[in-house]
């Protein structure tokens, strides 16, 4: 299948490229960064998807688009409302419009796999959250992901595209040397302390806040399965998570894997932080046949430490 991967220069994008290439697909990588070590034989298009004409060029020839591009930081998104809406919503609309415009009568609708986020949910209590849980994002980032996800759903409802949205909670681990997640993520920050690049890990509150972690290779597996799953209307939505863990548990696992101490500096709780957020992945396991096989907390930290280069 001819697949365009947007956001291909990013952490998840590089894992998805590797997986889809392994599966034998014909790929084109789309990203805004030029200095990227693309897999051999994968052509790249360096484009800004917030420009409609660039989006049309990006999806030319596509049978499917894995739309992973966008801004991803929850904290700080409130101070960058315009950039987040342009990168996460306008760019998505441009990709969808471009796919609709190039479709001819009689063509099968192109497949869109959209990378959404667990940040679309509001307060969840202390039980894994299913896809049916009300959406009530508490950040600009979450709001933009929800708006883009809804646009994907409405376009799919017309039959112009077939679509799957994947609500990713927290990716960790690594599959390519030197490629790791955003340095603002919890595991990355804890490993920076273990490596000596940071003196201590700042923690809001007592460290009991729980988040759900999943190996980036398992995320890539879910994307590949979403590309291949039979088309259905309306769009499908699936959660992606694997291991709920508190900040304390992540710190303890980092110390165990690295053999180094991770000093913690506790500050006041952040009232905007949900105390517990974890994914119910029953639907993805049942309907995509997805199993997060690499997602033990220790394996994610080990891979990020040794493969992703966090120990340097």
Automatic annotation (TrEMBL):
Its annotated pathway reads: Carbohydrate metabolism; galactose metabolism
Q: Where are the transmembrane segments?
A: none
Residues forming the NAD-dependent epimerase/dehydratase domain are 3-241
InterPro entries on file? Epimerase_deHydtase, NAD(P)-bd_dom_sf
A Pfam family annotated for this UniProt entry: Epimerase
Q: Which family does it belong to?
A: Belongs to the NAD(P)-dependent epimerase/dehydratase family.
| Protein name per UniProt | UDP-glucose 4-epimerase
Gene name in the database record: aprD1
């Amino acid at each position: 299948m001819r697949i365009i991967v947007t956001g291909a220069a990013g952490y998840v994008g590089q894992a998805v490229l590797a997986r889809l290439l392994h599966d034998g697909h014909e790929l084109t990588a789309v990203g805004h960064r030029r200095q990227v070590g693309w897999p051999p034989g994968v052509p790249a298009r360096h484009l800004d998807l917030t420009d409609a004409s660039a989006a049309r060029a990006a999806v030319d020839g596509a049978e499917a688009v894995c739309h992973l591009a966008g801004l991803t930081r929850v904290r700080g998104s409130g101070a960058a409302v315009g950039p987040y809406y342009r990168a996460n919503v306008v760019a998505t609309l441009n990709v969808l419009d471009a796919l609709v415009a190039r479709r001819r009568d009689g063509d099968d609708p192109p497949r869109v796999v959209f990378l959404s986020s667990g940040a679309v949910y509001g307060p969840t209590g202390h039980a894994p959250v299913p896809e049916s849980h009300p959406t009530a994002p508490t950040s600009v980032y979450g709001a933009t992901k929800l708006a883009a996800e809804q646009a994907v759903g409405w376009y799919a409802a017309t039959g112009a595209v077939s679509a799957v949205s994947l609500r990713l909670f927290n990716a960790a681990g690594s599959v390519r040397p030197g490629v790791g997640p955003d340095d603002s993520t919890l595991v990355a920050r804890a490993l920076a302390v273990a490596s000596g690049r940071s003196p201590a890990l700042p923690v809001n509150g007592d460290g009991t806040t729980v988040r759900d972690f999943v190996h980036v290779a398992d995320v890539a597996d879910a994307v590949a399965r979403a590309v291949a799953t039979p088309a259905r209307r309306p769009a499908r939505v699936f959660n992606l998570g694997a291991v709920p863990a508190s900040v304390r548990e992540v710190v303890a696992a980092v110390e165990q894997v690295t053999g180094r101490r991770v000093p913690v500096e506790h500050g006041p709780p952040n009232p905007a932080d949900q105390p517990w957020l974890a994914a119910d992945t029953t639907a993805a396991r049942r309907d995509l046949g997805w199993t997060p096989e690499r997602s033990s907390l220790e394996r994610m930290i080990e891979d990020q430490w040794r493969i992703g280069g966090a120990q340097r």
